[in-house]
Q: What sequence folds into this?
C-alpha cells in the first residue's frame, strides 16, 4: 500500500511507452489538422445530414419504400435489375444503332423475353395506376 507522497511501483516497458508516444502523436496530428475551415465544413455536413434525416423520416412514401426494399424478394429483384441494367447497357453500347422499320420491330418482337418484358411493364403500370387511383379515392394524395 502506498501513501499519498509515495509513487506507486508501476513499471512501463519500452513498448508501452512507444505506444503511448504514438497515441499522443496521433492526437496532436488530429488537433493540428482541425483547422477552422474543416470544422466549419464538418459542422455544415452534420447539420445537412440531420436535416436530410429529418426530411426522410417525415416522408411516408419513402418510409414505405424502405420497408418494401427490406423484403428479401425485393432485394433479389433489385439485384436482378442492377445486373440487367449492366448487361443491357453493354449490349446497347457494343451494337450498332438499328435502322428501324417494321422488319426490325418484328425481329425484336420475336426475340425471347420480349413478351415477358412487355407483360412485366404492363403489370407494373397497371398496379401503379390502381394504387394511384386508390390513394386519390382515399384522399392520401397530399399535394
A:
Amino acid at each position: 500500500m502506498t501513501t499519498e507522497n509515495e509513487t506507486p511501483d508501476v513499471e512501463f516497458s519500452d513498448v508501452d511507452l512507444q505506444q503511448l508516444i504514438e497515441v499522443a502523436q496521433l492526437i496532436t496530428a488530429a488537433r493540428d489538422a482541425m483547422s477552422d475551415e474543416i470544422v466549419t465544413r464538418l459542422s455544415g455536413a452534420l447539420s445537412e445530414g440531420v436535416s436530410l434525416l429529418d426530411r426522410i423520416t417525415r416522408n411516408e412514401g419513402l418510409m414505405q419504400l424502405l420497408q418494401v426494399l427490406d423484403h428479401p424478394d425485393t432485394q433479389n429483384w433489385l439485384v436482378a435489375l442492377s445486373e440487367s441494367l449492366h448487361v443491357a447497357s453493354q449490349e446497347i453500347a457494343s451494337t450498332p444503332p438499328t435502322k428501324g422499320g417494321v422488319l426490325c420491330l418484328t425481329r425484336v418482337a420475336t426475340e425471347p423475353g420480349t413478351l415477358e418484358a412487355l407483360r412485366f411493364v404492363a403489370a407494373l403500370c397497371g398496379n401503379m395506376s390502381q394504387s394511384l387511383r386508390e390513394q386519390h379515392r382515399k384522399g392520401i394524395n397530399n399535394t
Remarks:
- Residues 114-138 form the longest helix (25 residues).
